[in-house]
Amino acid sequence: MLWGAKENGFVDYEEKKTNRHWGPLRLELVNREELAVKEGGYSEEEAQNRAGTGSAMLVTKIAAGARIVKEEAFPVAGNGEGVTVRLVVETYGDLGNFVPAAGEKEVN
Predict the structure, then answer these.
(1) CB-CB contact of 65 with 94 (8 Å)
(2) Closest by alpha carbon to 89, among 74, 68, 62?
(3) Please, which pLDDT band fits residue 29 given cuts at 50, 70 and 90?
(4) Residue 8 contacts residue 32 (beta carbons within 8 Å)
């Protein structure tokens, strides 16, 4: 065992084993996928609202000095099993800085 859980914590699972050979060495990869269904406690409307708050995560990804101009969440699908939401965030910021090439003067 090189890494991963030594004990199998799944009750209902599917196991797939793959063997790789390199000369006299053999590597056995074991992949376990849980088959049990997990149920959430949100209505479709609550799930859409929670998905819409994903913009808070985006704030950490936008460039320094940029500001959010508009954000919208559009429900794309909701089939009873899950909800897909398209999140559109419009930002305003400086896209780049002029860097003069060697020997050139900066133009203001």
Answers:
(1) yes
(2) 68
(3) confident
(4) yes
pLDDT band at 70 (very low <50, low <70, confident <90, very high): confident
Cα 38-40-41 angle, rounded to 5 deg: 150
User: How many beta carbons lie within 10 A of that of residue 83, not counting itself?
Assistant: 20
Residue type, 32: R
The residues, ordered by sequence, that sit 6+ positions from 64 with a Cβ below 8 Å of its Cβ are: none
Q: How confident is the model at residue 79 (pLDDT cuts 50, 70, 90)?
A: low
Quote the CA–CA distance of 11 and 2 in Å, as a whole number. Answer: 23
pLDDT of residue 81: 64
